[in-house]
Every structure is written in C-alpha cells, then in structure tokens.
Write the structure tokens for this entry.
Amino acid sequence: MRKSERERIEGYQEIAREIEICRKYGIDYNSQRGKWMAAVERLHPRRLKLRVSEIIPETAAITTLRLVPAQGYLPPFQAGQYINLLVEIDGIRTGRPYSISSPPNQMAYYDITIRRIPEGFVSDYLLDRVQVGDILEST
C-alpha cells in the first residue's frame, strides 16, 4: 500500500505509532510459544477420559454421575463450567453438554447431575446403561 493511501485511512497514524512503540519497547514472546501451549494443554486438554466411579440417585428422575480421571488428573474449573460428554449409542456418536455440579475446590472428581427427560437420547443412555467403571470421553 502506498504512503498516500495509508494516510487516508482513518486512525492509521495512531495504529502505526502503537506498532512502533510495541516494536521498540515490547517483548517478543515467539520463543515462548511452545511453553505457553504446553501450559494451556495442561489446564484445558482437548479430550479427557473419565471413569464413572459412583452413581448417586438423587430423586426418581435425577441421578449424579461421579467421574474421576481414567489417567492423570482433572483440570481445574470454575463454577458454572460444563463438560461435553461424548458417547456412542447404537453406532451413533454424539455429545451433550453437562454442567459440573461438584464444587470447584473439589479436584478429585467431577459430578454431573442428569435429569431424565422424555425420550432423551443421551440422558436415557447415561441413566439406564452406564455403569460404575465405564469410561466416558469428554471435551
């Protein structure tokens, strides 16, 4: 782009000054790229293998599944976060989000509380067919 064209762009001069300041005084983090990604992967892995350690009936229509890591550890979470459980039901692979119902300071397991809904494809599977010891995959 020619200089005359750049000068006609509203705000160009301010942005160019900011870029120059960053180049002069900023820190180049490119050498740290792999280290940052490793830290992010530890805190937020792409996939988790979770073993059902306990099935806790809450009411006639609600059950809590207690999930522990099949290997390694569970990443920390904040109240309100969810996991996406991936299941294969009769040859159909699908996933559903479930809020983590255990407290965030509990690092040994995740609880997910499932309510039965009429003709619930995944909820019926989790409530009727999943057993203690089964491995579930999540994102």
The first strand starts at residue 48 and ends at 57.
